[in-house]
Amino acid sequence: MCGIVGYIGTRKAQPVLIEGLKRLEYRGYDSAGVSLMNGKGSPVDTRKAKGKIAMLEAAIAERPIEGSTGIAHTRWATHGPPNECNAHPHVDCTGTISLVHNGIIENYGPLRAMLQKTGHTFVSETDTEVLAHLVEAAFDGNLEDAVVDALALVEGTYGIAVISSNDPDKIVAARKGSPLLIGIGEGENYIASDVAAILAHTRQVVYLDDGEMAIIRRDGYTVCDLDQQIVKKGVSRIDWDLDEIEKGGFDHFMLKEIMEQPTTITNTMRGRLVTEEGFSKLGGLNLTMDELQNLDQIIITACGTSWHSALIGELMIEEHARIRCEVEYASEFRYRNPIVTDKTLCIVISQSGETADTLAAMREAKRRGAKTLGLVNQVGSTIAREDDGGIYLHAGPEIGVASTKAFTSQVVALALLTLKLGRLRDMSVVKGREIAQALEALPAQIQSILDRASEVEKIADAFADATNFLYLGRGYNFPAALEGALKLKEISYIHAEGYPAAEMKHGPIALIDAEMPVVFIAPHDSVFDKVVSNVQEVKARGGRVIAITSREEPSLEGKIDYEFRIPQTIDMLNPVLAAIPLQLLSYYIAAKRGLNVDQPRNLAKSVTVE
Ligand code: AGP
């Protein structure tokens, strides 16, 4: 998720743009850049820098740029590691057209090849640079005409802003899938991906919708569709306070990120599911068909929440791809003497891509001859740069220390990989289609859970003063129990343990009393009836039961104190749906305890030390 801001007026554009970028820093950024128009026909002046906005400011201080029209961008890398060259804006061969982009151009590969064949030279590894050259190829004096022609060739999502010194008195913007809005000033106007970037200057905004383009001038703006038919748009007045907007109106980043999951899961799957044929397209594995078919073991290594998604991946891969799979804590793997061959695939899962133990475990696996595959959210992170291949999560920056959207995207990425591996082996097209259809249904199912968040908040009210929790589940839901327990303990500081439901009899049952809430993850799956017996064992000892179920269960009648129902899905995807109410339960309990939900004590977002 990147940040875009543009200005056209009579003031110096550079300070307005830099301040706007700073207001977008909550979106996460790994590099940033600014382009200013500087007179008709002359090359656009561009400065870019890797890292925080301060690095860009230093670059501009070193080589100042002037101009009253410009565009700027903070990058959350999706293609190409974070560095100055890959930072936006991107310019065309003549240097007179500059463009910033938020989104993913799915067909950038063939477009880049086509443009290179016609003489265009590329300098970056990004998908975005293709757009600058497409506009150049179509440009015939009118910028909006060129943008329309360029976008007609594009598949994927975009929010773009473009300037050209050969058509200098305008900024052209267009939107499909990534937010954009116009800010209306006096003798000056703005374009931005988020209100936060321009709220210091205006409260009058026009939100663009998908398929719309805006031509923004100093003295006004026009909105049209991509056939250049005028579209009538209302003007909205913003009455938010700036510090609220950076959390999108939510009290905490964690809640914002929980609520984003229908979108982030969609982005993780974007362009990767071939539902009709029941398989997945994963471009970056860098493994040949032969290597994939001849794998004889998979080791998945990670830490924390990522280790929980690894446990789910193990069950998926063994059940549906029929490849031996084991999961190792990265901190343990790196120091033991594992059996690894050149037919071993070592999958490393890491939201940050910087966790020291996970990085060390991957290097150890490589040293022993394994192929490595990174499931990483942060593009261009160390793990993503050192692995042999990867599957980016595309979940956008995760600011809250407690991982939520990254976890569900990890599980979905593992399901996509399982589909890929399974369909290379014994998985039928029917089974593959069933899994693909269940994956496609997830975003709407997650939204239906989020729409009932208040039900979870009521349960949290009853347990905000608890001192201990037990989370129990079987099969795919045992790792979901572990993840639910971790979410609670790391932000509410309540001791919580996750356990296989059947294991409770072998010790933890001694803990059960009216003071010990027990959360059962009990969707209607292949082991449901077994879980019912465990519920009865808890109730028989006076325990209070919270059950995450998936439909009316007469067998649970009178045995559970609180119930939250999730939609029915296939066994392997239950942890994705069960995670949502458990994330919310932890969030509401921690918020009710008045704790720092986004930065819990003693924790860091990325543990880059042993
Ligand atoms: C999860 O909520 C925690 N923040 C922590 O366990 C985290 O999952 C772990 O440190 C691994 O981080 P990574 O995914 O960035 O490697």
**What is the radius of gyration?**
25 Å
- The CATH H-level superfamily of the largest domain is Aminohydrolase, N-terminal nucleophile (Ntn) domain
Number of domains: 3
Share of helix, binned: 25-40%
Q: Which word captures the global form? A: globular
Q: What's the level 1 CATH class of the largest domain?
A: Alpha Beta
* Count of beta strands: 26
Give the biggest beta sheet.
Answer: 8 strands, antiparallel
Secondary-structure-based class equals: alpha/beta
Counting DSSP H or I runs of 4 or more residues, the number of helices is 19
Distance between the termini: 30 Å
Mean pLDDT: 93
Protein described:
With 610 residues, this protein is of the alpha/beta class. The protein has three domains: 3-238, Glutamine Phosphoribosylpyrophosphate, subunit 1, domain 1; 250-447, Rossmann fold (3-Layer(aba) Sandwich); 453-592, 3-Layer(aba) Sandwich (Rossmann fold), CATH 3.40.50. It contains 19 helices and 26 strands. The protein has an eight-stranded antiparallel sheet, covered by helices on one side. It starts with a strand and ends in an 18-residue tail after the last helix. The structure holds 2-deoxy-2-amino glucitol-6-phosphate (AGP). 2-deoxy-2-amino glucitol-6-phosphate binds at residues 303-306, 350-352, 355, 358, 401-403, 490, 606-607. 2-deoxy-2-amino glucitol-6-phosphate (AGP) binds at residues 303-306, 350-352, 355, 358, 401-403, 490, 606-607.
